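User: What would this chain look like folded?
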Amino acid sequence: MFLNLWLQGLIVLGGVMAIFVISYLGYIIGPGLFFLAWRRWQTAKKEVADFKQSIRELPFD
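Assistant: Here's the prediction, encoded as C-alpha cells.
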C-alpha cells in the first residue's frame, strides 16, 4: 500500500516537473523564434529595397 502511494506521488511529481520544464522551454524558445523571424523580416525588407534600387538603376535603352 505504501509503495503504491509512493509510486503515485512520484508519477504526480514527475508530471508537475514536466509541465514546469516545458513551460520554461517555451519561455526560452518563444522569444528566440520571434527574434529570428523579426531579424529575417528586417533583412528581407533591406533586400527588397536593394532590389528596387537596382531595378531603378538599370539602363532602359
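The CA atoms of residues 21 and 31 lie 16 Å apart. If you want, I can go into more detail on any region.
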